[in-house]
Amino acid sequence: MDKDNLWSKISDYFKSDVSRTTYSTWVETAIPIKLENNELIIELPSPLHKDYWKDKLSEQLIEYAYKITKKDIFPKFVLKDELKKSEEKINDTKVQLPTFMKDTHLNPEYTFDTFVIGKGNQMAHAAALVVSEDPGKMYNPLLLYGGVGLGKTHLMHAIGNKIVKNKPDTQIKYVTSESFTNDFINAIQSNHTERFRQEYRNVDVLLVDDIQFFADKDGTQEEFFHTFNDLYEDGKQIVLTSDRLPNEISKLQDRLVSRFAWGLSVDITAPDLETRIAILRAKADSDNMEVPVDILNYIAGQIDSNVRELEGALSRVQAFAKFKKTVISKDLVSEALHGLNNHISKLNKSSVDEIIYQVANYFELEPEDIKGKKRTKAIVIPRQIAMYLSRKLTNVSLPKIGISFGGKDHTTVIHAYDKISVLMKKEKAVKEAVKELSKILGK
Ligand SMILES: Nc1ncnc2c1ncn2[C@@H]1O[C@H](COP(=O)(O)OP(=O)(O)OP(=O)(O)O)[C@@H](O)[C@H]1O
User: Fold this and answer.
1) Domains present along the chain, CATH in parentheses
2) Computed from CA positions of residues 129, 135, 137, 139, in that sequence, does the dihedral angle turn out positive or negative?
3) Is the CB of 152 within 6 Å of ligand 1?
4) How many Å lie between the centroid of ligand 1 and the Cα of residue 257?
5) How far is 178 from 175, CA to CA, in rounded Å?
């Protein structure tokens, strides 16, 4: 969890527990500066604030932080002018710390060793390995793209972890595009843009997850453009992930799209049966679970959408066995996955037609209307909902979804997906329809 995330949750606790005046006087004026190891550095506007926090609020803060992170986190209060000094101190400590303790935000469990290679990810794996062995040289930037839960983040962390292992002095920063955006906004609001820039531009490797969320955020894109240029010119490695190719992200500036294409873009597709079995076996081994091979095969046959769901299914089976105090059998797996396998396993390649049929039925239209070209609102929205559901609930590729909708282009499917994602937030009827239809489709 990053400092801003943690702070916003802590602030919420304060907001509900203290008076409005206390909140606005003491809490709202505090700015989280850094979260490192178990210390949260907080900037306060005056010595009076410092005393008040120390005497009256710090214990509460420690308690909230524990509730949120299940870890002991201690505050360190600093005043603005003390900050420089404290930063120097932090930097001093940094030099002495081994890199693995630095604030890279890397998940130590996402390594190449724990990544199972299969048909759908072997190219991405190979490219990631090359980058981790010689960052900034061969593929810069490296862009990994593909559907939800297929291992993009895992590979990205694996690159970071391997680089740190090979060269502990390397400065690595992993962020999601949302954290980058938040950091940037906070930096502007607190007048700390220079510090923000230093933080992002003085790294050797920058890993940015889910860049599709940069869409529509012009200010952030501008800042990222400059960050990218600085790092690139200095030969620093940039790795990006996205759920689609940059030129398919609407509202991503052309200059970013073109830069992202300078290096190598590799996609990850859904794992085939053999890979799914291998992933399950690896997970069972790492959890010290004894699961017979035929059971692993059975689960892998049931869940063919993405790895996250596959892992979730195994955990669910494990939990069921524990709860029922019984060994894992096929019957137990069926029971555990009952709610899941109705939809996940069915919603594969043949299911786009089923979605089209159910959506047409729901809106009292004919499937041919959904697949056709008519552009009246009464048909366009249901068509886009059907495309949205096809993308969300199946592992069918975008071009194939387009073909099922009467030979439409895959960019039309992406556009429909984005449009419905936005409409669901704005229009209750659309949200309801998607919810209802997901239920009908067993999701
Ligand atoms: N090939 C693999 N071998 C082992 N574990 C994998 C593999 N692919 C994915 N996983 C695991 O599946 C889970 C989901 O993967 P990950 O978070 O990397 O997906 P993602 O593609 O980044 O998804 P999203 O688009 O939602 O961010 C993680 O726990 C990851 O470790």
Assistant:
1) 3-84 (3.30.300.180), 112-267 (3.40.50.300), 273-346 (1.10.8.60), 352-442 (1.10.1750.10)
2) positive
3) yes
4) 25
5) 8
Q: 417 CA distance to ligand 1 centroid (A)?
A: 22
What strands, in cross-sheet order, belong to the sheet with 172-176? 172-176, 205-209, 237-242, 142-146, 264-268
| Distance spanning both ends of the chain, measured CA to CA | 29
Per-position pLDDT tens, the chain of length 443: 788 999 999 999 999 988 888 898 899 999 999 888 778 999 988 888 888 888 888 888 888 888 888 777 788 888 877 766 545 544 444 333 333 334 567 888 899 999 999 999 999 999 999 999 999 998 999 999 998 889 999 999 999 999 999 999 999 999 989 889 988 988 888 888 898 998 899 999 999 999 999 988 889 999 999 999 999 999 999 999 999 999 988 889 999 999 999 999 999 999 999 999 999 999 999 888 888 888 999 889 888 778 988 888 888 888 788 777 788 888 888 888 875 644 444 455 457 888 998 899 899 999 999 999 988 889 999 999 999 999 888 767 788 888 899 988 888 888 899 899 889 988 899 999 998 888 777 66
Does the C-beta of 305 come closer than 6 Å to ligand 1? no
| pTM of the model as a whole | 0.61
Ligand 1 contact via 441 beta carbon (within 6 Å): no
Tell the residue nearest (CA) to atom 16 of ligand 1: 151
Strand pairing class (172-176; 142-146): unpaired
182, two tokens: 């938040």
- Whether residue 151 is annotated as binding a ligand: the answer is yes
Note whether ipTM > 0.90 here: yes
Instruction: Name residue 32's beta-bridge partners.
Output: 42
